[in-house]
Structures are given as structure tokens and as C-alpha cells.
Amino acid sequence: MVRRYAFTMIELIFAIVVISITVISLPMMNQAISKGIDTNLVQEAIFASSGKLNEILTYQWDENSTPNNSIYSQVIWTSVNDCNQTTKRRSGHIFEQKHRRCLDNNFSVVQPTAVLGFEATDNGIYNDMDDFNNVSVHLFIDNSGVVTSAEGYKNNYTMEINVSYADFNETTAASKNMKRVDITIKNSDGNITTKLHTYSANIGEVDYAKRSF
Fold first, then answer.
1. Higher pLDDT residue, 113 or 170?
2. Helix (H) or strand (E) holding 12
3. Quick check: pTM over 0.85?
4. Using CA of residue 123, residue 182, residue 174, residue 202, what is the dihedral sign?
């Protein structure tokens, strides 16, 4: 008599159940991993927009903010009586050297830029905040400089930048004293993923005392 080894019915059923669970779970795991990657890419897009927002704020407030032979921005007159004609200071300014002050040229000579955007005289160089107005760039670019989707198969996010004069009821856009920077992130379907904004005021810069030793 030959002895034969074989699965019992209960072992066979148990094996079928385990294999079924594995087959069903794999697609769900892949889907979860895919969603996780997509979420990470959205976060990267948000970080990129936040970084760009901070970068824009490092530029001078306006094309006309910096007088000749100076590297520091000054307050642009936004009306005839905006600054004191003699001291070239606004109310609240400290009348000391190296503190914030208004331009020597008053409102009749120099005013904030009327049309915000990249000027032809910039020669391709961004030199003030509103140069970034109406800029739209893709966030994922490969090593050759060609725009592609992230990882070759995910959404291709786009960053749209808008710079405008802010309106706060009391401080109207017509006064041209505040600029608002909006950055909108959109996916390949044109849906908004996130939108960030910040403000910058026409307050000039301070200089610093320097000593040589």
C-alpha cells in the first residue's frame, strides 16, 4: 500500500482565503501609496509657493523706491502732502540720519508705478516686487529644462503670481501705499490646490551705522 500526502480540505480552504486576501489587498496598498505620493507633491507645491512668496518680499517695493546712488529703498510720495516738504519725513518718522525717510523728489516728480509688471527697462532682470505680476511657472522641470509632470505620471502643478495695490477700506488701492502678492497653485486640471497671499507696505528701509577698525 502506497502512502500519499495531500492537503486536507480545511488546509485548502485556509490557503484559498489567504491568497484571496493578498490579491485583494495589493491594489488597495498601491492606491494608498499613490495617494501618499500625491499628498507629498501637494505639500512640496505649497512649500515652493511659500518660498517664492518670501523671495518676492526681499525685492524693493517699487521701481521708483530707490533713488540714484543709493542701495536702500525710501518712501515714495503717494500724494502732495504725504511727506513734509522740508524734512522729507512722514508723520511718525524719526528725524535722524539712516532712519526711514521719503524721497527727495516729491509727488509731482516721482510716483508709485501705475501699471504693475515687468518693465522694458529692466533688461530681463527682476528688480522690484511688481515685476513678478502675471508670472506663471511650472513647478516640476526635469534636468534638461523640459517641463514634465512630477515623477513622470503625477499632476503638473502650476504657480501663478499676481501683484496688485491692496484695498483695505480706509487704505484704498488708489492710495498706492500697500501691495498685495497672491500666489495660486493649480493642478493639471486647472483646479486650485492652494492660494497664499501677503502684503508689503511703502515704508522704505533703514540704513545701519558702520564703523571701521
1. 113
2. helix 9-57
3. no
4. negative
